[in-house]
Amino acid sequence: MKLFSYIRDCIDVIFLSFVICINCIRVILGLGETTIILYGLYLLCLCALVVKNNHTFARMLRKDNIVKAFLVVVVIMVMYAAISLVWIPSNETITTFLKFILSLMIGVYSVSMPIEKIKGTLNWIIIINVAYSIILLAMPSLADQAMGAGLNYLNATLPLGLALTLILIKSLDAVSNKGGIIMSAVWIVVSGLYFLALMGFVARGVIIFPPLIAVIMFLFMEKKHRYVAWLLIPVFAGVLYLFFVYYISNASDYAMSRMTNLLESSEDEDRWELWSKALNEMGDKLWYIIGGGIEAFRYNSSIRFYPHNIFIQVIGEYGLIGIIVSIMILWNVTKGFIKTRTIASMTGESVVLYCTMGAFVYYTLTFSKSFSLYDGLPLFVMIAFCLSLRYQFKGLKG
């Protein structure tokens, strides 16, 4: 009875967690490109968010001008994307447009989730990825089957990198705020499970970014057990070092070559060259002002591919509105994090703030070197969570 009651009360949390970890489902079920099953999950998630949070969302729109401004920008982006379908006609582009709308709407409604549900979502992400890791380790052939179906290693490892980031932050927070050495050790063990699951792939950012982000978040933490916390940092670094030594000893030659050459894997994958071409095209066609339209880099440019940098893509395809939304996100998320750290610590909710900010940084870094804007649902949700926490902690202060 309690289980059904929990599902009823937290159906939006459950759906949102699975949508964020949708690539876990794709790997386990051997799904390649986006299918009707995945679109259905997006739609169910949006319905659950609307039903559970509609009144809260309406109240936030009335009281929070920042959320209102973001909604206006989102609407303008969607309208321009719809108009640009006229000069970029393609069935694939229409499909991308529908996915973009669903992703943005899920992000928009996520801003209305209360702190407890944000924490619940992050915890569900950790649980889902524990199950995902165990399945990958028990049945390694699943990864090969998913790769054969058209899914690449970046998609397969993206949720694992997020969960690893959350776990490492929780580990350091347990020590810095509560002196929870035992709990910190538990989180480190779980991170080891994630790390072992990542061994079967040649992903780089998901291995490099999480430890760096966790240490950055640690520098911002208010350390009640200051000396214990700082003394345990070398232990934290030592454990990570052992993981990396194990990786170097067991990873394939191809994986190691990719790890040591992060941005210049080959002529076809050279990020610097791709970014340079995209920027030159933006300048020649004045896309940084008027925007080339949805998927312009893929269908209406010489590179015939998305630029593997979400900022270049959003500015190139949406022009001035892309510049505005990029500045709004970076400014408001960073400012909100800095201003609410003390309040979060006083209310005992610091870990959710650091985990959410860490997740935002993880996705921002990852989407700055890989992935398309139109795969950005997890990033949109983390932006929404950051704005939501800023609003809620501000209310607690008042």
Describe what this molecule looks like in 3D.
By secondary structure, this protein is mainly α. The protein has one domain. The chain has 19 helices and no strands. Helix 2 crosses helix 4, helix 9 runs antiparallel to helix 18 (350-367) and helix 18 (350-367) runs antiparallel to helix 19 (377-397). The longest helix has 37 residues, at 310-346. It is globular, with a radius of gyration of 21 Å. The mean pLDDT is 85.
| Overall geometric form | globular
Point out poorly predicted stretches.
none
Largest β-sheet summary = none
Structural class comes to: mainly alpha
Query: How many discrete domains?
Result: 1
Give the number of helices.
19
Total strands: 0
The overall pLDDT average reads 85
SSE blueprint and pairings:
Blueprint: H1 2-9, H2 11-20, H3 22-29, H4 36-63, H5 65-84, H6 91-110, H7 115-138, H8 141-148, H9 153-178, H10 181-198, H11 205-220, H12 226-250, H13 253-260, H14 271-285, H15 287-290, H16 296-299, H17 310-346, H18 350-367, H19 377-397
Helix pairs in contact: 2-3, 2-4, 2-7, 3-8, 3-9, 4-6, 5-6, 5-17, 6-19, 7-9, 7-10, 9-10, 9-11, 9-18, 11-18, 17-18, 17-19, 18-19
Give a quick set of tags describing it.
mainly alpha
Concise summary:
With 398 residues, the protein is mainly alpha-helical. The chain has helices spanning 2-9, 11-20, 22-29, 36-63, 65-84, 91-110, 115-138, 141-148, 153-178, 181-198, 205-220, 226-250, 253-260, 271-285, 287-290, 296-299, 310-346, 350-367, 377-397. The chain has 19 helices and no strands.
